[in-house]
Each structure stands twice: as C-alpha cells, then as structure tokens.
Amino acid sequence: MRTHTSALSRPAETPGRALAWLVALAVALGAGFVLAPGRLAANGSEGAFSGRHGLVDALRPAFIAYWRSGDRRFPPDLQRVVDYWYRFHVVKGVLAVALLIVLVALGTLLWKAFLRSGGPRGRLALASAAAFTSALALVALAAVMANVQGALAPFSSVTSMLPLGTPGGPLAGAVGEIRQGLAHYPDTNGRNTAALRVMVDDFGRYHAVLAVLASVVAVVLAGLSVTAWRGFAKVDGADGRTRRTMAWFGVLSALLGLALIVVAVANTGTAADPAPALLGFYEGGW
Predict the structure, then answer these.
(1) What are the angstrom distances between the C-alpha of 195 and each of 60, 73, 110, 251, 280?
(2) CA 36 – CA 15 distance, rounded (Å)
(3) Which class for 280: exposed (0-12), middle (13-18), buried (19 or more C-beta within 10 A)?
(4) How much is the pLDDT for 235?
(5) How is residue 286 annotated by DSSP?
(6) pLDDT single digits (tens) 145-201
(7) Which of these, 261, 92, 72, 58, lies nearest to 161 by C-alpha position?
(8) So what's the pLDDT on residue 31?
(9) Of 6, 22, 129, 169, which one's alpha carbon is 20 to 30 angstroms from that of 79?
(10) Do you find a cis peptide bond into 186, omega within 30 degrees of 0?
C-alpha cells in the first residue's frame, strides 16, 4: 500500500521539482547575463576596460587614431576594443539563448498548471507567474537579437558608446569631419574616405542583421499565432479558461509579429541606404 501511494504521488511532485529547478536556473542565468560577460570576454590587459568607463576611455583615442589614419584597417588599439566587444556580445548572446530556453520551458509549465488549477487564488497566482515569465521571455528574446546584432557588427555597436552628441576635445574634430563626409556621401574625397566607407558598410550590416532577425522571429510568431487559434478552435466551448488563454496567445503573437515586421522593414531601408541614418547617429540622434 505504501509503495502504491508513493507511486501515485510522484507525478504530482515532478512539476513542482521541475519548476523549482527551472526558477533556480533562470535566476543563475540572469545573474550570469549581467555579471559574467565582461569578465569572460576580457583577457590579459583587456581586463582593464571590462567596465563601461574603461572601455570608453580606451575606445575614444583608438577611434580618433583610426579616423586620422585614413586606412581601412583598424589600428591595433581599436582592433583590440572591437575584438573584446565581439566576445562580449557572443558571451551575452549564448547566455541569453540559454535563459530564453529556460524561460520558455518555465512559462509552458506554469501555463499548463494554470489551466489545470482549481481554486481562484491558485489560478490567480499561477496566471500572474506565467504572465511574468512570458514577459521575461520576451525580454530575453530581445537580448538574443541585440547581442547577435552586436556580435556580427561589433564596430558599429561599440561606437554607440562614444559621447557623439557632445564629443568635446579631439573627438569633436573627428566627429565634425565624419558628419561633413556623411553629408556628401558617397561624393567624398580626401584621406578619410576609406575609413568612412568602412563605417557606412558596417552600419549597413548592423541594420541588415536586425532586419533578418526581426523577419525570422516574425515568421515564428505568426506560426505560434496560427497554432494558438487552431487550439482555440479545437477546445470544447465549455472550457472557457483554455479558450481565453489560447485567444490571448493568438492575439499577442500576431501583434508582436506585426511590430517586428515594421522593425524589419525600417531596418531593411536603413541597410539599403545607411549613410543618412549614420549621419543622424553621429549627430547624436540615438
């Protein structure tokens, strides 16, 4: 009799254990996402600019030297910063993907538990937890997209940390020349033309990556919306809770997909003609 009772109670305990493990894993990955990338991306002397201020202090003179060199190739100091920033985004991207997977699994368990729950208090607690987890999953998804974008175009990503709106000092002179060159791009002559083309091309790639990512995620969300509405149609009319949940998922997925289509279209236009947007960037428009 004792064995039989234990066997019956095991399935009921499993979701609770799974939820606890997933919550602990999500907390650990969230903490790692915030604390670990700078340390993991740094090596040797690069640890000196693992913090934001140190990175900007190293980036500023390296960027100015690159602009004054008139060369397509990054000087060693700038290459060191760009390489660090690439690794930083790779680490953050991997952690964000892992966190997204955990949050999706956690959210799925919570929504299923909500649909099976009995009392109103339990339902409210589970619905709140499931909705909060779903919102965190969307944040993790945005983090994945942003870090893939940063890893594939690290130069444009890292230059966004420069105080371009109020540059001051030698940076002001470089930024003024860049603005002047971009205002007439591609009809630009002078020793900085090669560097300017690198900046424009990299900025175009930066936005092309986001356009592709937004398009892919929009397609996935469209598929989720269709799946949710199909589930809505199959559920018995008496099961109002499940039908309402499916309907909310269908509507939310569709709306998010439409928003990402807008993002994809806007970034496709910028990728096709990046110079005007880059001029706005160097004028402090971001």
Answers:
(1) 16, 8, 52, 46, 18
(2) 30
(3) middle
(4) 85
(5) -
(6) 999 999 999 999 999 999 887 778 899 999 999 999 998 887 766 557 889 999 999
(7) 58
(8) 96
(9) 169
(10) yes
Residue corresponding to tokens 């890292």: 158
Query: Looking at this protein, which amino acid is placed at residue 201?
Result: D
How remote is the C-alpha of 104 from its chain's centroid? 16
Angle at the Cα of 163 from the Cα atoms of 95 and 154, rounded to 5 degrees: 35
Which amino acid belongs to residue 117? S
Judged against a pLDDT cut of 60, whether residue 44 lies above it is answered with no
Q: CA dist 128 to 20, 66, 111, 133, Å?
A: 17, 51, 10, 9
Taking the CA atoms of residue 67, residue 71, residue 72 and residue 75 in that order, the dihedral angle to the nearest 10 degrees is: -70
State the amino acid at position 220 in one-letter form.
Answer: V
Cα 232 to chain center, whole Å?
Answer: 31
The three-state secondary structure class of 156 is helix
Give the tens place of pLDDT for each residue, 119-151. 777 788 999 999 999 999 999 999 999 999 999
Among 122, 104, 142, CA closest to 26: 104
**Alpha-carbon distance values, 89 to 209, 222, 248 (Å):** 14, 28, 33
User: In Å, what is the CA distance from 249 to each residue of 50, 126, 145, 279?
Assistant: 40, 16, 21, 40
Model pTM score: 0.88
CA 207 → CA 108, 152, 213, 220, distances in Å?
Answer: 32, 10, 10, 20
